[in-house]
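Hi there, hope your week has been kind to you so far. No rush at all, and the record is pasted right below.
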Amino acid sequence: MALTMASTLELLRKHHQLREVIQGDQWTLNTPKETQSSKPFTDITYDTRQAGPGSLLFCKGRFLPEYLDACDPEGPQAYVAQQDLSAHTKAPGIIVNDVRKSMSLLAAAFYGHPQEQLTLVGITGTKGKTTTAYFLHAMLSRISGGHAALLSSVDNCLDGRHYQESQLTTPESLDLFRMMRQAADAGMRYLVMEVSSQAYKVDRVYGLTFDLGAFLNISPDHISPIEHPSFEDYFYCKRRITYNSRQLVLGADARGADLIRQDARAANVPVTTFGDGTRQADFLVRKAPGQGDDYLIGPSGGAMRPVSLSMDGDFNALNAAAALAMLTRLGLEPDAAAVRAMESVRIAGRMERFKADNRVVYVDYAHNKASVTALLDFVDERYGERKPLITLVSGSAGGKAIDRREGIVSAAQNRVDRLILTADDEEGESADQVDRQMLGFVTNPSLDASIVPDRAQAIQQALGDPGLPGERLRVTLVIGKGEERWFKTDSGHVPYEGDDHVVARLLGTESYDLGATGAAQG
């Protein structure tokens, strides 16, 4: 059914969002006299540059009244805001209690509630969201014959075949419902998506219920004046997925797992747990006997399935256990073909390995204490007996997640031989400021720590010259940017070659795991 002024007001009243409608001197709870109540909106947007005749414009976030000057002279048809903007437009203003919640409700209606045509899976956690989403998506795609969509922090797939780079981990609600409509219209039956803490903080998924939710883990991250003011707020936002899912898969070893179980009981949401056996869990992962990288994954007390992943690390095996647990909770059988699809998944910038002479390089998106710790644990397990020279190349994004900076240093400084601090995103803060702050967190006097502002030069310095046969193994970890081809700055995106491309160029080799394309697969 088309979204009109009348149906908009009715929906907002139903959800206790409508305050009043203002047009000129008219203040009313109904459609203003000069406005057609039954005329459908032709599009919805939160960008004034796209608001023309027939548009419903949402004035959200740091919206300034003068932005309305950029609108088409004939539009918008109406606007939704938390304040009266009638001094800047002749369009009727729908004044609401919360514009973000209202936008989510109205976007769902405008796009015909596409979530009802899809089996929705939402995945949250501090680390592992992307990999777990790719693992599950690969299996669902194989089982459904390609009828599975994906929304991730790396890229999005809405038709089961084509991938496009994503802009946000979880899109704005208006974009999210538009994408779900595209997926449903393309014949998709499943949609797997990452759900960030910000998605709940700013109501990007307001009113959305997941058929299956997953809470992988939690550790301090995204704590800053512009994100979450405290770990409590960050954890609370993550936990909200429990109340908005019909069933939940939970990491048994997750910090705060007992509290999440209490949430689930309060919401009458059944819980399935996964883990490595450290704590009791419904789904387990164990190292397979022998010296290889194979694992055994399966239900506790049941048959364990051998799994050989293309992505290194015990943490990725745990992500695979989560994906298999989720698949079974969806009522699907992880047959051999589905497991092979998961085993073949590789993601550019996630544990992407390069090898040349006595040098091994990993390009990874690790960007906080927990992920750096997990990465170094992997290096110890894989290469520890060879006593390698370990170099970490890292920066940290400016203007946000300030706690990450000390976390990266504290996780690394007693476990690496060299720390090279370098450029990262600069939003409200220069890379030099961030790097100097991180250097100040170094307390280990034996650590070789330095700042090399140019990221490509930092990587070049870390790799050094080719070694002679028999020389000590050198392991270089280039973290934080993954496959990203740009730096974010206050003035926009600045192109960057990409960590993986820099490493490949300097070593004269392609990625050991992904090949020359470096494209995400699965």
About this structure: The first helix runs from residue 5 to 14. Residues 514-522 have pLDDT under 50 and may be disordered.
